[in-house]
Amino acid sequence: MTDNEVPVLIVGGSLVGMTAACLLGHHGIPSLVVERHRGSAIHPRAALILQRSMEIYRGIGLEENIEARSREQFDQDAAIMSVESLAGEEIAWHLPRLNDGVRDLSPSERLFASQIAIEPVLGERARELGAETRFGTELVGFEQDDDGVVAVVRDRDSDEKSSVRARYMVACDGARSWVREQLGIGQAGRGTFSNSVTIYFHADVKPLMRGRNLGVIMVVNDTLQGFFRIQKPYESGFLAVHGLGDARSPNSDVSQNLTEERCVELVRAALGVPDLPVTIDDVMHWQARADVSDSYRKGRIFLAGDSAHVMPPYGGYGGNTGIHDAHNLAWKLAAVLKGSADPGLLSTYEVERKPVAQFTVEQAYARYVARAAPFLATKGVEKLVNDAHIDLGYRYQSSAVIGGSNEDLPIHSDPRETAGSPGTRAPHQLIERDGQERSILDLFGKNAVLLTGSSGTRWSIPARRMSRKLGIGLDLHVIGGAETGPEIGEQFTALYGITESGAVLVRPDGFVCWRAQTDNDASDQSIESALQSLLGRTLKPAVL
């Protein structure tokens, strides 16, 4: 007899775990989140939230709240730059304004907002959507069978143990994932290339900002290599340090024998003021790594976030990639738990997400090498790809995408050129609904969605008939008819690569599953084939 039964147990209640709980709740699936720490994050980690992540939070009603918390912490649309020191010479402006060149790609903007601000917002929303969250509670054991997982958890204050039975378990327990270790899942990649530290400090930094709107400040000098994040009102921040001494041949074992006095010296060297009063608040030790787990799943247990992939904090991809993991997995778990999808759909999680992670980890590593550790270039690095291509242009290839087994297709593309191709994120377009300008992305999120051009009405009857037959929620929208207007329709067909009689099937996660350029095959069979593929069923889909 177990003490609790839940559909999904989430191990780890920080950024990715709480996001997973929110997304499951959004699909009507309650979860239990256990987090060994006694509260949400106390230090401002993962400070860059990219557009795709903000689109995901927009879909569950959190975009405005996160934007508000961001404004409290940081200046918006700030620069990413490199300096010898904050008071000294500027080396390069990598991105003068955070959202330069990407505003047309999404209804959402990139912003700086750390976990210390976001996690309480996520936790509150998760509980509103039916999740139970237990802080100060750690997983101490688990077993799984054909029907589920039985986990033993311990309250760290009372030392009381209890058992939980879940249909599925999601491990979001970080880079040193205990769950991953217990499952015997290894990792491969670049390994550890720095024993790094993050120094949290207070100092009067405002005069050194010199009116510059700076978001991420990378520091490269003969004392250290790392980066700053400075928080309003410019009296506190953190300095991440991953190298000491000459950048051409640094000492990468930063954390060894690190005293408070040495931390003060490092902060002063990075700020460029030798006698500036500095108070050290805390020091966090961590490893700079670039690795991906060999598997994302064993039985009914899934890995997400840092337990599945670890990357250096250059580009802000670590936390964002974890958010995208949760988004990919949540709708699939919900569909299986509700009985509308075959359990085989869950096998597409690793198939889709692992190649994206491998690509993203290498891109984060390449940025680390180019901006802060050029001595590693001799070991070979991937060519740098545009940030927007990494965030918005990645492609899924799996059985849940019609034509998704084509290995010749690139793992990433320019999001302006994907044109609604199956496996890619459905492109953003402004449309008018109910007298208000909105994004077409606002149509996605819970159900599958069939979009047609202005003359695509022949798709509606078979779509409704097959959605009822298969027991799947399916929303239908004609883009360019009376609902949105003819000009919008012309933009839509060009953006999604169809004619005005064509159709596009979009998954609940906003990725295109299937596309028909015309209505020549607007039939029960073609719609059923596409929906069966989306649901992970074995009926071979027709390629149109």
Secondary structure: number of strands: 24
Helical coverage, percent range? 25-40%
- Structural class from helices and strands? alpha+beta
Beta strand %: 25-35%
Mean pLDDT: 92
Q: Given the C-alpha coordinates, what overall shape results?
A: globular
User: End-to-end distance, in Å?
Assistant: 51 Å
Unreliable segments (pLDDT under 50, ≥5 consecutive)? 539-544
Count of individual helical segments: 13
Computed CA radius of gyration, to the nearest angstrom:
24 Å
Tell me the major beta sheet: 8 strands, mixed
Could you explain how this protein is built, in words?
- This protein has 544 residues and is α+β, with helices and mostly antiparallel strands.
- Helices cover 28% and strands 27% of the residues.
- The chain has helices at residues 15-26, 51-59, 63-73, 115-128, 178-183, 206-209, 260-271, 317-337, 348-372, 387-392, 460-470, 486-496, 524-534, and strands at 4-11, 31-35, 48-49, 79-83, 90-95, 111-112, 132-135, 137-144, 149-155, 161-171, 187-202, 214-220, 224-231, 236-244, 279-293, 297-298, 301-303, 309-310, 430-433, 436-439, 448-452, 474-478, 503-506, 512-516.
- Strands 1, 2, 7, 8, 9, 10, 16 and 17 form an 8-stranded mixed sheet that branches. The protein has an 8-stranded mixed sheet with strand order 5-4-12-13-14-11-15-18.
- Helix 1 (15-26) runs parallel beside helix 4, helix 1 (15-26) packs parallel to helix 8 and helix 8 (317-337) runs antiparallel to helix 9.
- It is globular, with a radius of gyration of 24 Å.
- The termini are far apart.
- Mean pLDDT is 92; it is low at 539-544.
